[in-house]
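Data deposition worksheet. Section B asks for the primary sequence of the deposited chain exactly as it was used as input, without tags or linkers unless they were present during the calculation. Section C holds the resulting structure in token form. Section D is free text for depositor observations; keep each observation to a single sentence. Incomplete worksheets are returned to the depositor.
Section A, Depositor: J.P.
Section B:
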Amino acid sequence: MTWDAQTGVIVVGVIALVALVIAVLLAFRTSRMKTQYAVLSAADGRASFVEVVARKAEEVEGLRDDVALLADELRSTQRELQMAVRHVGVVRYDAFGDMGGRMSFSAALIDDHGNGFVLTSVHARSESRSYIKQLRGGMAEVTLSPEESAAVADAVASIPQGRLD
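Section C:
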């Protein structure tokens, strides 16, 4: 195979065409990279993408700290709430056969652990008497009347399962 001038021109032309195609492709990729870089870098007085991400990461870290504090406060409030008197049972009844209107009552007020008291008011025609009995773990140290026992049972029934000691 011999190289004449025409073959050399064709080979040089093909090489030039390939170089031109490569140059166009490189120019296109460079243009795309400049556009992507513009997104990452600060332009027109705006913060760069990297700065924005760093600021948002700091904000997220601050929010994590806030959530941790709130979780601690929630646990503390839940512990305090367990000791709050929030379970009530009330039984109204007629203490004497000749009285109507169920004016006498027994009310049990207890916390999540069954600690609290039973308040009983016995209403008669000429007087009313009130009694209070302490409860520990849903049990009284003294004998309860049937009405007081029913009030305590109602109050204990409203305690979430597994809370009563």
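Section D:
The chain is about 50% helix and 20% strand.
Helices lie at 5-40, 49-82, 146-157.
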